[in-house]
């Protein structure tokens, strides 16, 4: 009888000890100073809408935090020309997302973007071409024509001085003329960073127009001793977004400025 009582008492003490340990562990786990590893209380869904166009001769790849993103129903690892994709994910606490756009052949990183939970739904939009990149394309707005029969323009010059090395870093003005010399108007403050002011004028034939690029507020060429004229074509009842491009020969020597790239040929703008 005595032996049985001792064994029962030992079992009771063991049970009390185990219960105490569990209680202590539970209390420590609920301590306010402890934070879940991923900060679960701040986890939230995220979404990046990717809208771009690549005129680069090689295909491009998208990686998010180092992981290659599959594109399209056929799950390709790279794209050419147009890309429209929604990427859904979860932000874990303060962890951000880094998007890299890379030339798949050369492995060159062309552009890098960073996204955070401060704006869980965001947009990545771009136009890519060799030696040229235009960012935030989705935020660009067309100039609105005020009259039927007009032709309208906005300009941007992202690779100004790439080949000319003119030394002038200020804004430019474009003096627009018809082939007979008649001045159609002057558009001011053309620069590298964003599309500038809007200009419109009545369409007429022949549709060729000549734009002379000069330093802002002057009639002086932005390249010393060299008159720079851009040849463009008017289009009836159309507003254009023209990307000016410095061009070069095979040796990298400046040959002039081209004005044929029109972003409205690649995107739908409001």
Distance between the termini: 94 Å
The helix-strand sequence is HEEEEEEEEEEEEEEEE
Q: Helical element count?
A: 1
Oligomeric description of these chains: single chain
Low-confidence stretches: 1-7, 16-40
The amount of beta strand, in percent, is 35-45%
What is the structural class? mainly beta
What would you report as the Rg, rounded to the nearest angstrom? 31 Å
- Which bin fits the share of residues in helices? 10-25%
Major beta sheet, strand line-up:
4-1-7-8
Description of the molecule:
With 270 residues, this protein is mostly beta strands. The chain is 10% helix and 43% strand. The protein has one helix at 2-29; strands spanning 44-54, 60-64, 67-68, 81-91, 97-103, 109-115, 121-129, 132-135, 150-156, 172-178, 183-190, 199-202, 208-215, 229-233, 238-248, 254-262. Strands 4-1-7-8 form a four-stranded mixed sheet, with no helix packed on it. The chain has a four-stranded antiparallel sheet with strand order 3-2-5-6, with no helix packed on it. A hairpin with a 5-residue loop joins strand 5 and strand 6. The longest helix is centred in the first third of the chain and has 28 residues, at 2-29. The termini are far apart. Residues 1-7 and 16-40 have low confidence and may be disordered.
Task: For the structure shown, list the relevant keywords.
elongated, 43% strand, four-stranded mixed sheet, 270 residues, single chain
What is the compact description of this entry?
This protein is 10% helix and 43% strand.
């Amino acid at each position: 009888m005595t032996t049985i009582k001792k064994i029962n008492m030992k079992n009771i003490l063991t049970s009390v000890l185990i219960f105490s340990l569990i209680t202590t562990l539970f209390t420590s786990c609920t301590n306010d100073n402890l934070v879940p590893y991923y900060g679960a209380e701040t986890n939230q869904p995220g979404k990046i809408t990717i809208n771009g166009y690549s005129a680069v001769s090689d295909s491009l790849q998208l990686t998010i935090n180092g992981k290659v993103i599959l594109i399209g129903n056929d799950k390709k690892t790279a794209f050419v020309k147009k890309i429209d994709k929604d990427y859904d994910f979860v932000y874990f606490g303060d962890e951000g997302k880094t998007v890299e756009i890379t030339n798949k052949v050369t492995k060159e990183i062309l552009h890098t973007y960073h996204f955070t939970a401060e704006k869980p739904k965001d947009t990545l939009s771009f136009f890519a071409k060799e030696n040229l990149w235009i960012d935030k394309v989705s935020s660009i707005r067309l100039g609105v024509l005020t009259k039927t029969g007009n032709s309208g323009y906005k300009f941007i010059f992202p690779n100004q001085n790439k080949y000319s090395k003119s030394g002038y870093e200020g804004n430019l003005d474009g003096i627009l003329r018809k082939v007979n010399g008649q001045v159609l108007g002057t558009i001011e403050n053309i620069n590298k960073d964003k599309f500038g002011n809007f200009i419109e004028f009545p369409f007429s034939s022949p549709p060729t127009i000549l734009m002379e690029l000069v330093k802002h507020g002057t009639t002086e060429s932005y390249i010393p001793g060299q008159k720079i004229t851009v040849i463009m074509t008017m289009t009836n009842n159309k507003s254009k977004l023209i990307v000016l491009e410095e061009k070069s020969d095979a040796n990298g020597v400046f040959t002039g400025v081209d004005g044929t790239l029109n972003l409205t040929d690649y995107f739908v703008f409001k």
